Hints:
The protein is an alpha/beta fold. About 45% of the residues lie in helices and about 25% in strands.
Amino acid sequence: MRIIFFAGKGGVGKTSASAATGIRSAAEGKRTLVLSLDTAHSLSDIFDLPRKLMDQNKGEPVSVAENLWIQELDIQEELKKDWGEIHAYISKVITATGVEEVMAEELAILPGMEELSLLLKINRYVTEKTYEVIVLDSAPTGEAVRFISIPTALEWYMKKFFNLERTLMRVARPVVQRVTNVPLPDDHYFAAIKALFERIRGVDRVLSDPDITTVRLVANPEKIVLAETQRAFMYFTLYRMHVDAVVMNRVLPQNVTDDYFSGWKRNQAAYVRKARDYFAPLPILSVDLFPGEVLGFEKLADLGNRIYGERSPLERFHDERAYELSKKDGVYRLAVKLPFVEKSDVTVSRAKEELVIRVGSVKRHVLLPMHVAAARAVKAKFEGEYLCVYFEGAKDAK
Ligand SMILES: Nc1ncnc2c1ncn2[C@@H]1O[C@H](COP(=O)(O)OP(=O)(O)OP(=O)(O)O)[C@@H](O)[C@H]1O
Ligand SMILES: [Mg+2]
């Protein structure tokens, strides 16, 4: 099983690179699905497929070649399937407060529900082994980061939720009932949520296992794009995902000699050099600007050849572990690679069994193994690009 996750700034070529990678993977004989995580789908457009074909298929996978399927999920349908009961209950409560029903239905979509539905889908394909390779075409960085922040927070989420369940039952029941006249959810409701979490369980391990999942960042040789790619790299490692290459797309080819483009070419060459410095030792897979749009199977296949040359797209292009828990002389050391951040932007705090790493406005909860959480003293410091947290006096694991 292999998952390749494409991410990057808006418009850099994520969908094209995902499709091209899918084509190469299928050509190797692997059952491959290219799944769009972006609700503004453009996969079928890029394959130049008639819209009707996708609409008829109602968000199910569509076969585009031997061993190759593409899927543009209908997120409304998925929400209905996954969250039907839960959504109905929340809308009922909101309607009872006097909000119109249509509005209440909209409001009852909680943040994270869409992302969880996507995760459920991925997890189902993984557990049912439907495909050997899944290529994920994500939305631009901001949304993609929100998406990947969810699996690593799942355990934490679960805990909070079930604490909430207890509080709700004890404290809120009389209040909610008095104010809304809607009975508090019964066990059935909580059972529905528990079942949902059960179906998502394990997806965090799949996405953070570098033997299965690697992230490829797509960029263009421009200042703003590179800055965002650096941030994306840091976020993905913070959320424990393994970045294995940068695809530097739309580089003006050498044989463009027109004077008009000489400034562009100089600029691009400088940014390609910078990218090599920034991201070393990650490989930079450089791709020329095509003479026209990359549309249809043939051109996408050509793009795949330009990205990977003789190599297999299923390789792991880089092997460094960006996240490591080790033990030496009775002291546990958690090392998280956090490149491109100012030390002053990072704070580390600890609450019982979790460590909270905050970088600017983004934070990650790291659940600690019990014996590590029991440590008396914690010290955090930067060692090169690594944020290292030391736990002294930890009891040994039984
Ligand atoms: N190497 C290339 N040469 C020429 N055109 C390219 C190249 N790569 C991508 N394109 C074109 O750039 C446009 C944007 O590509 P694409 O849709 O893959 O980007 P994206 O990152 O998925 O965008 P979005 O953030 O909107 O999802 C498309 O018209 C595509 O054909
Ligand atoms: Mg796209």
